[in-house]
């Protein structure tokens, strides 16, 4: 488990030389204050900063090669996932890097604590006055105009020349908090809908989605899973609590073929909890739990509640939960997350650090799924823009981004489904052909509004409109890609159950399989709809991959065949 304490020792026992004497080199900077923030003034010299240092990983390139080797169906090593020790050996910083950074800390009277399993993240506390000296920075107070949120940040910082190649980044520095970063991506206000029978017939699915609808649409089996080692994890943030009584009501209404007492287990980190008060039942948490437990019949499901005692700063637990799972000897085979933010809210170096953590967990055999967002081409939630806004972490090439569809016979793209092209991450080879074909078909539409060479998302989609859930004992309806990610998580978990029962490995990192000929053939292509935003119609869905619904929606029977069952 990630340690939560921070150690500080003798902050003032040594006197630091001037920045010029230290030969400081500019490391990261912002050209301007992020939109929505204003400079309030200099930070108090006595204000304590909780800083994190990311050390350069020793051999990430080899880890990436191994990730693709074990995740590509045509590889001889497909499914031979790495152990905890093998992953840590590849990403642990070199002894030279550790010694160089620790020597610099000691020279300045500082002691840091390791906060990641591989030792590549350190944490320490320091007053603003000393941080300004250490990093030739100008830590100031910035205020978010709409919410009033205040943050101490700098627009640039430097590091000693001798630490270049050893120290990857200092955080939080130029990354600003995003007040909307972890709002549940439930698109519409919850609304009462008519009661349905416990097993809705497909005709009703045109207006209301229940587990029976998804079972019918995608061929999801109702037979119980048999493998206790196969686990599905649901992440929870911002005090969104999954209510057991609501789950019982949901199962009693929509899954009468399984016990309504079927439930989930709880894990917590960063001071997390899971209140069972009816008044604190979370719309997002209930949605995610009800459509994982309610679809992945008998798959052991874990709700991981991340509290507010973050060790990763503005990432607000996103890195903490991955380090938490990386520290486990047997992490879950699937992790679904229905939260996200705009890519432009964090620095490129920090985005890379989190993305690399996903690669580590993927190499261990975990499928990492994220809702793509609900703002169409305008980002994680609808906002004004002139150029298209990619979401994060959907732009990371080492996870699977899930978009949304709506309607039946045929399905069409949900207009809020976020999709597009990363401005940070290059297009990975596994999607080169599919994305190139789309860009050719798109022609000059939206020219100049997106990065044509960026990692494209989403990768896949499922239904995301008018899902019935139970909150505080009442049946309500919600929309969003946050409906789609847990749906896909349940499908992948049921595939993993069959694979493990057959003596095979779980699917792990999905994308090389999904973009393979066999994977694509097991999906239903969605060719209508679009995701408007930024005063445009956004991207149109087309034959093949598109940045609204990805490669299409799943077909369980075809996926079983594609994975060799």
From TrEMBL:
<keyword id="KW-0325">Glycoprotein</keyword>
<keyword id="KW-0106">Calcium</keyword>
<protein>
    <recommendedName>
        <fullName>tripeptidyl-peptidase II</fullName>
        <ecNumber>3.4.14.10</ecNumber>
    </recommendedName>
</protein>
<keyword id="KW-0843">Virulence</keyword>
<dbReference type="InterPro" id="IPR000209">
    <property type="entry name" value="Peptidase_S8/S53_dom"/>
</dbReference>
<dbReference type="GO" id="GO:0004252">
    <property type="term" value="F:serine-type endopeptidase activity"/>
</dbReference>
<keyword id="KW-0378">Hydrolase</keyword>
<keyword id="KW-0720">Serine protease</keyword>
<dbReference type="InterPro" id="IPR015366">
    <property type="entry name" value="S53_propep"/>
</dbReference>
<dbReference type="InterPro" id="IPR050819">
    <property type="entry name" value="Tripeptidyl-peptidase_I"/>
</dbReference>
<dbReference type="GO" id="GO:0006508">
    <property type="term" value="P:proteolysis"/>
</dbReference>
<keyword id="KW-0865">Zymogen</keyword>
<dbReference type="GO" id="GO:0005576">
    <property type="term" value="C:extracellular region"/>
</dbReference>
<keyword id="KW-0964">Secreted</keyword>
<feature type="binding site">
    <location>
        <position position="525"/>
    </location>
    <ligand>
        <name>Ca(2+)</name>
    </ligand>
</feature>
<dbReference type="GO" id="GO:0046872">
    <property type="term" value="F:metal ion binding"/>
</dbReference>
<dbReference type="InterPro" id="IPR030400">
    <property type="entry name" value="Sedolisin_dom"/>
</dbReference>
<feature type="active site" description="Charge relay system">
    <location>
        <position position="284"/>
    </location>
</feature>
<feature type="active site" description="Charge relay system">
    <location>
        <position position="482"/>
    </location>
</feature>
<dbReference type="InterPro" id="IPR036852">
    <property type="entry name" value="Peptidase_S8/S53_dom_sf"/>
</dbReference>
<feature type="binding site">
    <location>
        <position position="526"/>
    </location>
    <ligand>
        <name>Ca(2+)</name>
    </ligand>
</feature>
<dbReference type="Pfam" id="PF09286">
    <property type="entry name" value="Pro-kuma_activ"/>
</dbReference>
<dbReference type="GO" id="GO:0008240">
    <property type="term" value="F:tripeptidyl-peptidase activity"/>
</dbReference>
<feature type="active site" description="Charge relay system">
    <location>
        <position position="288"/>
    </location>
</feature>
<keyword id="KW-0479">Metal-binding</keyword>
<feature type="signal peptide">
    <location>
        <begin position="1"/>
        <end position="17"/>
    </location>
</feature>
<keyword id="KW-0732">Signal</keyword>
<feature type="binding site">
    <location>
        <position position="544"/>
    </location>
    <ligand>
        <name>Ca(2+)</name>
    </ligand>
</feature>
<feature type="domain" description="Peptidase S53">
    <location>
        <begin position="208"/>
        <end position="565"/>
    </location>
</feature>
<feature type="binding site">
    <location>
        <position position="546"/>
    </location>
    <ligand>
        <name>Ca(2+)</name>
    </ligand>
</feature>
<comment type="function">
    <text>Secreted tripeptidyl-peptidase which degrades proteins at acidic pHs and is involved in virulence.</text>
</comment>
<dbReference type="Pfam" id="PF00082">
    <property type="entry name" value="Peptidase_S8"/>
</dbReference>
<keyword id="KW-0645">Protease</keyword>
């Amino acid at each position: 488990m990630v340690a939560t304490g921070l150690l500080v020792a003798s902050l003032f026992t040594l006197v630091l030389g001037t920045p010029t004497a230290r030969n400081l080199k500019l490391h990261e900077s912002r050209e301007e204050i992020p939109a929505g923030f204003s400079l309030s003034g200099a930070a108090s010299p006595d204000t304590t900063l909780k800083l994190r240092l990311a050390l350069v990983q020793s051999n990430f390139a080899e880890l990436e090669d191994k990730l693709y080797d074990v995740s590509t169906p045509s590889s001889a090593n497909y499914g031979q996932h790495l152990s905890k020790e093998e992953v840590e050996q590849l990403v642990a910083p070199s002894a030279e890097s550790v010694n160089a950074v620790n020597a610099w800390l000691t020279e300045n009277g500082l002691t840091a604590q390791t906060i990641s399993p591989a030792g590549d993240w350190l944490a320490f506390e320091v007053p603003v006055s000393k941080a300004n000296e250490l990093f030739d920075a100008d830590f100031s107070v910035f205020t978010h105009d709409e919410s009033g949120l205040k943050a101490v940040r700098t627009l640039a910082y430097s590091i000693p020349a001798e630490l270049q190649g050893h120290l990857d980044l200092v955080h939080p520095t130029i990354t600003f908090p995003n007040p909307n970063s972890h709002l549940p991506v439930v698109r519409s206000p919850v609304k009462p809908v008519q009661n349905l029978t416990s097993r809705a017939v497909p005709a009703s699915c045109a207006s209301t989605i229940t587990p029976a609808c998804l079972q019918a649409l995608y061929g999801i089996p109702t037979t119980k899973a048999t493998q206790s080692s196969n686990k599905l994890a649901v992440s929870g943030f911002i005090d969104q609590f999954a209510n057991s009584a609501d789950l019982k009501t949901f199962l009693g209404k929509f899954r009468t073929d399984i016990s309504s007492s079927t439930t989930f287990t709880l894990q917590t980190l960063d001071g997390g909890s899971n209140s069972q008060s009816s008044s604190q039942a979370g719309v997002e948490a209930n949605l995610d739990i009800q459509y994982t437990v309610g679809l992945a019949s008998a798959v052991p499901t874990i709700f991981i509640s991340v509290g507010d005692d973050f060790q990763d700063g503005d990432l607000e637990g996103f890195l903490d939960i991955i380090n938490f799972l990386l520290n486990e000897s047997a992490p879950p085979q699937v992790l679904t997350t229905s939260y996200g933010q705009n890519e432009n809210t964090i620095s490129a170096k920090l985005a890379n650090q989190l993305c690399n953590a996903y690669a580590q967990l993927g190499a261990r055999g975990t499928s990492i799924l994220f809702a793509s967002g609900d703002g169409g081409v305008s980002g994680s939630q609808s906002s004004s823009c002139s150029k298209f806004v990619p979401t994060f972490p959907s732009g990371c090439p080492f996870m699977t981004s899930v978009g949304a569809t709506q309607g039946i016979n045929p399905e069409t793209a949900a207009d809020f489904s976020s999709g597009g092209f990363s401005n940070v991450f290059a297009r990975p080879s596994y999607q080169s052909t599919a994305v190139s074909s789309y860009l050719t078909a798109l022609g000059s539409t939206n020219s100049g509004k997106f990065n044509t060479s960026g990692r494209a998302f989403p990768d896949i989609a499922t239904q995301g409109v008018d899902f019935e859930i139970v909150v505080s004992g009442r049946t309500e309806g919600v929309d969003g890609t946050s409906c789609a990610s847990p749906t896909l998580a349940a499908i992948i978990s049921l595939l993993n159950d069959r694979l493990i029962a057959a003596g095979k490995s779980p699917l792990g990192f999905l994308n090389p399989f999904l973009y393979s000929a066999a994977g694509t053939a097991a999906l239903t292509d969605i060719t209508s709809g679009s995701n408007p935003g930024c005063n445009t119609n956004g991207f149109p869905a087309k034959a093949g991959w598109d940045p609204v619904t990805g490669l299409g929606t799943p077909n369980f029977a075809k996926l079983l065949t594609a994975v060799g069952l």
